[in-house]
Amino acid sequence: MVVSSDxxxxxxxxxxxxxxxxxxxxxxxxxxxxxxxxxITIMGQKSDRSEHxxxxxxxxxxxxxxxx
Length: 68
Hints:
Shape: elongated
Distance between the termini: 75 Å
Order of helices and strands: HEE
Mean pLDDT: 86
Largest sheet: 2 strands, antiparallel
Helix content: 40-55%
Structural class: alpha+beta
Number of helices: 1
Number of strands: 2
Radius of gyration: 22 Å
Low-confidence stretches: none
Number of domains: 1
C-alpha cells in the first residue's frame, strides 16, 4: 500500500482533531459537574458580534447546621 504525503498529513491532522475534541469534551463535562455542584443551571446562550451572553439561574441550597 502506497501512502502519499498528502494522505499522511490528513491522517495525522484527523487524529490531532480527534484528540482536541476529546480534550474539549472532557473539560466541558468537568465544568458541567462543577456548575451542578454549585446549583447553577444554564438557561440559554447567545453570541452577538464578539460578545457571548449566558442566561443562568442558581438554586441556593440551605446549609445544614448541626449543633453538637
